[in-house]
């Protein structure tokens, strides 16, 4: 028989059991934090009509999308969870309650050029709140607290959620008469961490801006300090522009309320250089950076959009949401040696039977499982030494050996694999020891 | 702007939040039972090379598979989780510990003709145990207990796990000189519940069998009784065929040990008419039927295969596994009105703030969440009546209203939505009431 090489395609992540366990633990933590804030789960088809998924247009999306025919159907794989959300909310509008708070954890697909840190299949973990007609700015203020508690639960402390508001930026550019250059300016300003202030000035000159305008822009993006300082500096600019003032009011609301949501000041700053892409968002925008690992980039981003589903319904459905790209994030954590799987089992107990008659070992296993202890039994006939080597390799915390002596005495020989200690215990004593570990 | 009709494709399941919550609860129960028995999670790409996924051949698989090109790659979507498992185990052989116990809960794809109860995208919930070279029959004996505890946890009591062994069937057909007709005979015998004994005899005559042979077959499949009766009847047949005797020994092992795994006798029978497809399995086979809903068919099936990964490796990797097709099962439970979502939220508490200053309500929300209570805050400014209507609609168990009085008194006004009772409570009292519900 011809042997086919068992390889997956480049750009797809596949983990060994020990790493998959860590990955799933992270996924579970994200999920339970999303549920903690009252979001309900959704699941939508991975395959949809191409005209639906590509309704937003955009050459890049078009190029990267997996698109194919099956029979007469022009199909595609979803490349994000936002277009399916828009389609879902439009389709089920009359059965949903608004504001509609949903989370969606699932795979999306982009046929990008495979390169380090880029995946063609990746998990996204999204929460969005969708309003019917309108949606309070307090929802924008709540999302950073979801980011904060989620990343804290994932084991991070030193991270910063950066907030901005697109209306503040757009209003400022309108005010200085540069709205037509706003996207160019944002792209340059965004690089200030890399190329420095001088670099930014140089590039702004290159696109033809006046010295005076450049000075205003530099002064604007150099506004730093804690959130209340930035808010009062922005107020002091006396910018008489409706968009700007509206954005500033929103930004203030988001910043002022953060502390009531339980976010420490240090995890949360206004950053006037953040724009998050140039077309999609219309108000609040978020980025999250692990301060010790800035090279990872933003680990959780999102923002406010005025009208989620304009391609599918006449209704106005404003929304605000965030997303964690877990596949890429996990990959980078592995690269940085920040996560490492140590166990390739979820069992707490491995039972090794020494006799052919398995009735007693199986009864012990069933009793352990009925007490919510993950338990497996070593059925293969191998030497005790081989079985213990296997137990060490998979990283199971306890081994229970059951031979003639144990059956006679009705005591279990329990080995704590982390300390090497061995005990002869009744079932209840053993259970207590295992539960407490 | 042109409005696109927001419809999904036929053959895809998409649920409203209240049903999605029920679906996910079932998925979680299946997962936790699989983990209870010491299985580790795997996740493999949905897209693989077509030559890998279609390596087993088979015209039907070929026809139903979503297959497409992206650049030069000939790709396909997985149509089950077994071929990816075979590829995974071959690919990662040296990094895995055997016996390798994995579960995989994920979506698979088959571009079938859409019809009631058939889905093109469906969840499969699989466990398999893979041995390196050999695998004890005790693994086959363990799987029915996983089925039993899982379905019990899903709320079912009256179901029967039917067991058989392909070697018993094949050995018997060899013994009566009908091995070349064995698949035809099995297909006919399989219909005995529908067409009756007379119908079976008629069809066996039509394929050209002798009266004498037909009598032997009917006697064989009519062996009924509890498991020990069937085993002793099979022994009494004195069939001198190696395959048969080997199968009978395996079937005895599986049947005898079932009770030590904690399965009540009534949930577990040997059924000599079960074959589970005609080529794939080589030993033990399983089916599971809800006795009150036989029309649903088998809700959990599986079996033993001698050689999992012969297309990918020279190694012999025997395995045994079971699968629950949750999408189809859930659909049928909904059809039969056996599941019905009642809540479209996972929140236990909805906080309704009555004042503009949200500091106190937000602090209460944060404290509840820190105590693991799923909590949401009603940010939209609406009348109390509208808010309570919303609370009833989503089915949240508790509503806490916070106005001036509550802030002054530092007491919370808590309404138990199921009883309509209202209480004025300190935070700790409220927490206790919510946790206990």
In percent terms, what proportion of residues of chain A is strand? 15-25%
- What share of the residues of chain A lie within helices? 40-55%
Q: Going by CATH, what is the homologous superfamily of the largest domain in chain A?
A: Bira Bifunctional Protein, Domain 2
The shape of chain A, in one word, is elongated
What topology, given as strand order, has the largest sheet of chain A? 1-5-6-11-10-9-7-8
The tally of helices of chain A reads 16
Which two chains have the most extensive interface, and how many residues on each? A-B, 107 and 107 residues
Instruction: Please state the oligomeric state of the protein chains shown.
Output: homodimer
Structural domains of chain A: how many: 2
Radius of gyration of chain A: 28 Å
The pLDDT mean of chain A sits at 94
Q: Per CATH, what is the topology of the largest domain in chain A?
A: BirA Bifunctional Protein, domain 2
Q: What distance separates the N and C termini of chain A?
A: 49 Å
- Which structural category do the helix and sheet elements of chain A fall into? alpha+beta
Going by CATH, the architecture of the largest domain in chain A would be 2-Layer Sandwich
Poorly predicted ranges of chain A: none
CATH class of the largest domain in chain A: Alpha Beta
Report the count of strand segments of chain A: 16
Largest sheet of chain A: 8 strands, mixed
């Amino acid at each position: 028989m011809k042997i086919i090489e068992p390889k997956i395609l480049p750009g797809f992540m596949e983990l060994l059991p020990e790493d998959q366990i860590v990955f799933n633990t992270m996924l579970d933590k994200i999920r339970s934090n999303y549920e903690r804030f009252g979001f309900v789960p959704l699941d939508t088809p991975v395959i949809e009509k191409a005209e639906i998924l590509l309704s937003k247009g955009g050459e890049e999306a078009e190029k990267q999308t997996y698109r194919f025919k099956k029979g007469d159907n022009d199909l595609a794989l979803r490349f994000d969870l936002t277009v399916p959300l828009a389609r879902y909310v439009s389709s089920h509008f009359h059965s949903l309650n608004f504001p509609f708070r949903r989370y969606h954890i699932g795979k999306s697909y982009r046929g990008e050029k495979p390169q380090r840190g880029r995946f063609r299949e990746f998990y996204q973990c999204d929460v969005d709140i969708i309003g019917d007609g309108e949606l309070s700015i307090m929802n924008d203020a709540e999302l950073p607290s979801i980011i904060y508690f989620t990343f804290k639960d994932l084991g991070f402390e030193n991270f910063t959620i950066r907030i901005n508001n697109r209306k503040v930026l757009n209003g400022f550019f309108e005010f200085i008469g540069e709205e037509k250059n706003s996207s160019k300016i944002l792209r340059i300003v965004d690089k200030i961490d890399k190329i420095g202030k001088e670099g930014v000035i140089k590039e702004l000159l290159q696109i033809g801006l006046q010295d005076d305008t450049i000075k205003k822009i530099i002064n604007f993006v150099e506004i730093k300090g804690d959130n209340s300082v930035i808010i009062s500096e922005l107020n002091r600019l006396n910018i008489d522009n409706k968009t700007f003032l509206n954005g500033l009011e929103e930004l203030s609301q988001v910043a002022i309320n953060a502390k009531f949501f339980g976010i420490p000041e240090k995890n949360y700053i206004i950053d006037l250089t953040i724009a998050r892409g140039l077309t999609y968002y219309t108000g609040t925008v978020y980025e999250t950076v692990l301060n010790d690992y800035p090279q990872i980039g933003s680990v959780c981003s999102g923002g406010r959009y005025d009208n989620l589903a304009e391609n599918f319904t006449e209704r106005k459905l404003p929304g605000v949401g965030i997303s964690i790209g877990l596949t890429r994030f996990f990959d980078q954590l592995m690269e940085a040696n920040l996560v490492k799987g140590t166990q390739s089992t979820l069992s707490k107990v491995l039972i090794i039977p020494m006799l052919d008659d398995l009735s007693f070992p199986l009864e012990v296993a069933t009793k352990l499982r009925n007490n919510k202890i993950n338990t497996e039994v070593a059925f293969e006939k191998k030497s005790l030494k081989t079985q213990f080597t296997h137990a060490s390799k998979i990283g199971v915390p306890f081994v229970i050996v059951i031979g003639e002596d144990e059956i006679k005495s009705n005591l279990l020989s329990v080995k704590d694999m982390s300390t090497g200690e061995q005990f002869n215990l009744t079932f209840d004593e053993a259970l207590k020891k295992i539960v407490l570990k």
